[in-house]
Amino acid sequence: MYSKEFLTNLYRQLFTIRIFESRCIQLYRKGLIRGYFHPYLGEEAIAVGVCAALKKNDYITSTHRGHGHCIARGADINRMVAELLGKKTGYCRGLGGSMHIADHSGGNIGANGIVGGGIPLGTGAALGISIRNEDRVSVVFTSDGATNNGVFGESLNLAAIWNLPLLIVVENNQYAVSTPIDKSTREPDIYKRCIGYCVDSSVVDGNDVLEVYEQAQKAVEKCRSGKGPILIEAKTYRHGGHHVNDPGHYMPKEQLEYYKSKDPVVKGRSLLLESGAVSEKEIVSIEETVKREFEEAVDFAQESPEMTVDEFRAIGEVY
Ligand SMILES: Cc1ncc(C[n+]2csc(CCOP(=O)(O)OP(=O)(O)O)c2C)c(N)n1
Ligand SMILES: [Mg+2]
What we know:
Layout: H1 4-29, H2 44-51, E1 59-61, H3 67-72, H4 77-84, E2 108-110, H5 118-132, E3 138-143, H6 150-161, E4 166-172, E5 175-176, E6 179-180, E7 200-205, H7 209-224, E8 230-235, H8 253-261, H9 264-274, H10 280-303, H11 309-318
Parallel strand pairs: 1-2, 1-3, 3-4, 4-8, 7-8
Antiparallel strand pairs: 5-6
Helix pairs in contact: 1-2, 1-9, 1-10, 2-7, 4-10, 5-6
Residues 143-145, 173, 175-176 line the site of magnesium ion.
């Protein structure tokens, strides 16, 4: 049985990511957010379930669809919104934007605009842990399309021969931009590739936060006891196009409707209610708080300055 606090925290995070993404899409449409923005809508339970299994000093690397990972790893919402709005108070002083948020204080080595780019970085972090003999794990969040990059196999192989404390979480949302997975690989079950590397792997319903948590918990324990690396494939689906400006017309309507009916945030809410630990009224109060905190973050970001040209030049001189 899970504690009230644990279940409430899971739901608060699921709902925070949902509000963050849907409200940021509105801000994007108003022209307040520029550049690319890949929403994590529909995939929330993966980041939340996995990060719930981690300790404060564990590492994660994230992807181009990375807001959910940052939030689940405890990032400050004010600084995240400020980053998206290009403000000096953001995680990268407003210079990185959506795809480059890193939060070293929370063990988040960083999101990555390079598909697959986080895989060798997280593997390197796991090598560092191993060399220093630390009690830590490194978690790489990655995606189905990224696993067709050579670096996926190279990293998995090195992690295997060196028994690294590495957990690779493949968020298989079944598309790479508009290419469905059956057009990019013969084997749509990505976890099966691990057989060739003698790496333990499993597959999980990415819509069920508790299922994800339980699998991640086991995997992380194995990594801590020297039985890494491990790979978990989470089956999931985007609740829309690849990025904010992609209407996703190529996604079959019935498929989208099917996955929306398995909405991970709605599911998380039901799990919390069914546990009997929290009343409907308490859940509504959590939701109201999350929404209010998001609006306060927008105010904080809007009131924050952008970097001046001189400050920007000064950074250039340092490097
Ligand atoms: C190395 C590299 N190649 C191509 C791109 C362009 N690109 C951005 S996202 C994307 C698709 C990624 O699909 P997937 O790995 O399944 O992640 P998802 O967007 O589905 O989360 C591509 C090809 C890139 N950013 N980096
Ligand atoms: Mg994908």
